[in-house]
Specification:
Blueprint (H helix, E strand, L loop, with lengths): L7 H18 L12 H7 L9 H5 L14 H14 L3 H26 L4 H13 L4 H5 L4 H22 L2 H21 L6 H12 L5 H25 L18 H20 L10 H5 L3 H21 L1 H14 L18 H17 L7 H25 L3 H11 L4 H13 L3 H14 L5 H13 L3 H14 L6 H6 L5 H11 L7
């Protein structure tokens, strides 16, 4: 509830200040290249650059098409808007992502002020900790991971409008209610994590409703659940049975649901460690990243987080909402459904907003004398400075593909994908000798069964004057995956870039390679 002692303009000014800090913090990423999935989707893909696709994206008909991110039409719409403004220039895309992150920081601050009784100090510290946390660099600095940023934006907006709806009358009640429902639909349309919108809106109603508004909150929550459920039903009903983009289905973590349930708590504990000691962040995590930390320590870290969240939830409604948001947002990214990537930093973008609420609740609980507060403030500044420094350095990792995969190989040496991607980044820089070593490492990690690494090695071999070896390497790739005999199809499937396809055609000209 807003505190009457805090002038509205001052609250808005602080929200803008927090947003500006977040935007300026990501100024370093504005000059970055397209990396990771943004290369095939934005730099070389044509879908988002074709204005004729606006109709199918805005009407969600794209859900039934074999398109990258077809199940996330709001993400596609944001990229198409960038395309209309910037073409294939990465600067504009990075500006949009930074602006969305800044908006999330400002909205988070406003929501904390709305819910927390007008405590600007704790609200600002919590929002700034969220703004600069290094785990959030991946979803902000890597354009194709923007869906997490979009999802949080619409979730925060849905909660903010729901609170306004609960306290308004007349037309304002109807407009804010409709806005809440629309924002919830856009949240799940950006990414599946938006499925938690009914949970968050309902929790706001239970925890913060005013007397006599229970029925209003019930109707609003039901409407949000209906539109979110309707979208998910359409998403799964319309999903194409066959795909030329996703050449294989994701496997079950551990091989079975029972094994998944055994492994997942260790991943949660690993996330806690990464949140509070973010010095070994990686674009790809392997089982070895988790296994090198003793299971008992991971369980203890997880238990400590739950204990802290529980204390905040027991003493504060904001703390309870934050705990609920953290774990609800963890659900869709916890391998209960099969996932291509079992763990990733970007999965923490929405949960960390919930953790920021916990931080706010804990800071608001502190009751110290005037002499103690300078020490508390100094401690907070030290923590924020450390997080900001790590986050600033992390942005450099995502500046180029070579930086990204060099760092990932160092952090996750057991990742064959990291070694393979480093090989392609080195090929594009003309360092074919080092590229060949990276491809050999990827093949070593997969016992020679990685077709993409054989194909990449073929390019490196050809460019180092070994055409016969290049032919044999490409033939091996085709034996493992026949699609490597059709370079054009590889480009359509977003497995390869046009320059790679052209290199394979040239190698094929040295000898006949039958698929």
């Amino acid at each position: 509830m807003p505190a009457p002692s805090i002038a509205r303009f001052r609250v808005l000014l602080l929200a803008v200040l927090a947003g500006v800090v977040a935007f300026l913090f990501y100024a370093r990423s504005v000059g970055s290249e397209f990396v990771y999935d943004a290369r095939p989707q934005v730099l070389f893909g044509d879908y988002i650059h074709n204005p004729s696709h606006w109709g199918e994206v805005l009407t969600f008909r794209v859900l039934g098409q074999d398109v990258l991110d077809a199940n996330r039409p709001v993400q596609l719409a944001s990229l198409m808007l960038d395309s209309a403004l910037w073409g294939r220039n990465p600067v504009g895309y990075h500006l949009t992502s930074a602006a969305l992150h800044a908006a999330n920081v400002a909205l988070l601050f406003l929501l904390l002020m709305e819910l927390g009784g007008g405590r600007p100090g704790p609200a600002l510290l919590a929002a700034l900790a969220f703004a600069v946390h290094p785990m959030l660099v991946e979803p902000v600095a890597e354009v194709s991971s923007r869906e997490d940023v979009l999802t949080l934006f619409f979730l925060l907006l849905a909660m903010f409008l729901a609170l306004r709806c609960g306290r308004s009358t007349g037309r304002a009640m109807w407009w804010t209610g409709a806005g809440c429902v629309a924002a919830s639909l856009l949240a799940v349309g950006a990414k599946e994590t938006g499925v938690i919108a009914p949970v968050l809106v309902g929790a706001c109603g239970v925890l913060f409703r005013e007397r006599g508004t229970g029925r209003r909150w019930l109707v609003l929550t039901a409407l949000v659940a209906a539109v979110v459920g309707g979208f998910l039903a359409a998403r799964f009903a319309l999903e194409p049975r066959e795909s030329v983009i996703f050449l294989s289905k994701p496997g079950r973590l551990g091989g079975s649901l029972v094994e998944t349930l055994k492994i997942q708590p260790r991943i949660w504990g690993f996330y806690v460690r990464q949140i509070f000691w973010p010095v070994e962040l990686s674009a790809i995590y392997t089982p070895q990243n988790v296994a090198r930390i003793a299971a008992v320590w991971l369980y203890l870290m997880l238990a400590a987080l739950v204990l802290v969240q529980g204390v905040a939830a027991w003493r504060s409604r904001v703390g309870l909402l934050g705990m609920l948001m953290y774990w609800a947002a963890m659900g869709p990214v916890s391998n209960l459904l099969t996932m291509y990537c079992p763990a990733a930093d970007r999965y923490l973008y929405v949960p960390l907003a919930g953790l920021a609420m916990t931080v706010f609740a804990l800071l608001a609980m502190v009751r110290l004398g005037a002499r103690a507060w300078p020490f508390v403030a100094a401690g907070c500044i030290v923590v924020l400075t450390a997080l900001a420094w790590l986050g600033w350095q992390r942005q450099e990792v995502f500046a180029t593909s070579l930086n990204l995969w060099t760092d990932t190989v160092a952090k996750s040496p057991a990742s064959d994908n990291a070694a393979n991607n480093l090989g392609y980044a080195l090929v594009r820089k003309g360092d074919n000798a080092k590229a060949l070593a990276a491809f050999e490492r990827a093949l070593q990690l997969t016992n020679g069964r990685k077709a993409d690494a054989w194909a990449g090695a073929a390019i490196a071999l050809d460019r180092t004057g070994r055409p016969s070896d290049a032919v044999r390497a490409l033939r091996r790739a085709v034996e493992i995956m026949p699609i490597y005999g059709d370079p054009d199809q590889l480009v359509k499937s977003m497995v390869a870039e046009p320059a790679d396809a052209e290199a394979w055609r040239e190698i094929r000209s040295h000898a006949v390679i039958d698929p």
